[in-house]
Amino acid sequence: MKRGAIKISRKLVAFFLAAVGFIILAAVFTFFHSPSCADLECFQNAMKECKRARYINEAQEASWRYEILGSEEGQCDIKVTLLQPKAGELLLEKLSGFNMVCTFPEGISTYPERDIERCHGRLKEELQKIVINRLHKYLIENLGEIEENLDIFVSPVS
């Protein structure tokens, strides 16, 4: 009699584990899976409706991965990751793999990295550091020229 009870409980445990596995798998695909878009049009349509989707944009200057995270209070969150800079400075190479989250009103479809004011995260911070350093370098290199141009506005008129 104990043998029969053991067989039944093993079958019950196996069924229970299979059911739990199925539920976990269904939850992962429902809440965390983002379908991949093969072209920009697919991604733009998903962005307008703020439906979960992923897309890799092979732009001339860099490869970007976009992932629509979802909507909150009428705003659509998109995670933007710099995969590989293709042109430009060596400084951009160090930013490969960094990301930022950009927020747009639902119904908008654009290249998220082009409106950096709507973004936050490490990638945005690092890009801003590069811009500030470039401006600083430009000011230092052209200080004489800038001073001459300012003198025109500051010097008294006779």
Give short descriptive properties of this protein.
158 residues, alpha+beta, 5 helices, 5 strands
Describe the structure.
It is a single chain. By secondary structure, this protein is an alpha+beta fold. The model has no long low-confidence stretch (mean pLDDT 82). Helix content is 48%, strand content 23%. It has two domains: 1-33; 40-152, no CATH class. The chain is built from five helices and five strands, in the order ααβββαββαα. The protein has helices at 2-31, 40-49, 90-93, 122-141, 143-154, and strands at residues 53-58, 62-72, 75-85, 99-105, 119-120. It has a five-stranded antiparallel sheet. The termini are far apart.
How would you briefly describe this protein structure?
With about 160 residues, this protein is an alpha+beta fold. Helix content is about 50%, strand content about 25%.
Please render the helix and strand layout as text.
Elements: H1 2-31, H2 40-49, E1 53-58, E2 62-72, E3 75-85, H3 90-93, E4 99-105, E5 119-120, H4 122-141, H5 143-154
Antiparallel strand pairs: 1-2, 2-3, 3-4, 4-5
Order of strands, main sheet, comes to 1-2-3-4-5
Radius of gyration: 27 Å
Percentage of residues assigned to helices: 40-55%
Strand content: 15-25%
What does the largest sheet look like?
A: 5 strands, antiparallel
Low-confidence stretches: none
Determine the number of helices (DSSP H or I, runs of at least 4 residues). 5
Cα(first) to Cα(last) distance is 116 Å
In total, how many domains does the architecture comprise? Answer: 2
Secondary structure: number of strands: 5
Give the SSE string. HHEEEHEEHH
Instruction: Based on Cα principal axes, name the global outline.
Output: elongated
Average of per-residue pLDDT values: 82
Structural class, judged by helices and strands? alpha+beta
